[in-house]
Amino acid sequence: MSTGDAIVVLYTSFLPYRPPSPPSTSLRECSTLQTSRSLYSNANIGDNFGIINQGAGSIDTSAHWYNAQIGQQTNNIAGDQYILYVQDDLIRRLNPILDASHTRNRKRSPPDSECFPGTREEPIQEIIIWGNSGETLAAAIPATAPLIEAAVRGESGLVTGDTSLATQLDLLILSPFKDVIDQGVLGETLAKGPFLIVIDGLDECEDKQGVEEFIDHMLAFFAKYQNIPLRIFIASRVEKHIRERLETNGVHLGNLDTHSSHKDIEKWLHASFQTVAKRDRVIQAYVRERGSWPTKPDMGKLIKHTNGSFVLASTMFNYIVQPPTQEDPTTPMERLPLTLEMNGLDGLYAQTLARSEHFPHFSNIISTITLLMEPLPIVGIAEILGIKVFEVNHVLMNLQAIIHVPGTDQEGEVTLGHTSLRDFLTTENRSKAFFVPPSFHLYLSYYCFALSIERRRSNEYARQQFHAHWLSFAESETCNLIDEIERLKARQPPFFDRLPYQGFLCSMLFHFFLLAYNLPELNDRLYLLMECTKQLELAAAESSNPHTQRWFKEDLPYVHRWGAHTFRFTESTFKTLQRHLEQAYTGIHANTPALLLCGERGLT
Prior knowledge:
This protein is an alpha/beta fold. Helix content is 47%, strand content 7%. Among the domains are: 127-258, no CATH class; 261-341, no CATH class. It is built from 25 helices and nine strands. The strands form three sheets. It has a four-stranded parallel sheet with strand order 5-6-1-7, with no helix packed on it. A three-stranded antiparallel sheet has the order 2-3-4, covered by helices on one side. It has a two-stranded antiparallel ribbon with strand order 8-9. The longest helix is centred in the C-terminal third of the chain and has 21 residues, at 571-591. The protein is globular. The termini are far apart.
């Protein structure tokens, strides 16, 4: 591996262990430097659990870690002697990921991603040789703060995510860094060597074209400024659109698959089973009567079954040693042979999910955790779904082998154990009965919309994300908008203490109609408008309902982009629209005439 390469890419065909997060193509930066003296203290490289620091002596390279965000994946960038205090306004607008540093409490902020001592030593040493004396970027350099702030103020899309990945990279990192270098303000810092950016999980970005443009812009930058003291390290799965762009001069490609992890997995499994045996009386009694467990042949089968994947090894181990329940009273000794019969991760995921599938609200709870724009605590999930906290706990307690469950209901966040679980749940031919369809975004949008109307409730997620869930549903290529809306109406979610679905549909359909989204068919547009006025009429009939009254009065935080639109209707369509509006007026006048004085809701 040449130390002269500007970009190093470490790729693997396995699934790297990294924290789950909703799909995104946003690049966000944290604004507080976390101090550390350990090189690559929390780089998630390939199939390991994160920290590249084996505890056998320190690595004095003066490298430091700072958190950056590429496509919703938390990445750590080296740094140890600068602490940047950026103005609160800039911090707020950059919207950093909280508690994502390598020094975080991993029990409260999963994944608990510390590498087991003595594992992954060979690839770690290879990385260290290339990255020796690497320094950091962006928030580690105080002089970049005003440049980043100016970029954010001048380009609002950097905050809203409406700019491309390449533009975000340029305005938030590359250009500020180059300007500071040109100003010569870093002084002796540059004598230590180049600065380093680590990008983990570039393959997680769903916008493939955006990723290609991101890589092209990065390569063009280094081609233009060949002597700039900056290096970029990328860890990613093998993806055609990424590799094709990076097979060029100045880039070193490293394949983690050439470094066998079987011995590392064996070492970790032995230690993990020994730790569990020390506190599990059932295992202790079994060992006293029958000898060591797992047996050497069973351990060999387990290691072979993992196929070199730490993710699979961890999931298998968690499944084997999870506590028994009334529904699944099997012991670890009985689960081990069952695990060997399962078909990789998919089999483990299906078998684990089956432990809770018969509980009330199982499907809604799993679908919500999978599709949330950001993870929530247990009480947040219960509030959005309109169910009791104990009902969420009842489902999750059986799933701790694959889902991170916080220690308390109010604090900590429920997260998927690995991004591969989200892939499994959202791929119908893999998950089958456990499939989470994109159309569930419609229900999440309704639940959040209804919750946001209740001013007595303090659920910021609902108020901020109901529109994002609507767009995820309405713009999905696999969802038939009209069919799914009709299913929602037929299902009529039984909320007695929330806004009826008519108010939600009236608001969202009218807003969607006015924004003139990609609905080429006139019939689709007419459906939106006709259905909107119909739902207004139905809502007006329930205007004595306090939730409906609040909906009529509430000023919802839409992003207005009004424009002039002209639509032609047949006389029959016009009369139908007119009838719906007249009936709505009549219903409101009959039930709550005071609402007509507000003038804050209505169609004219």
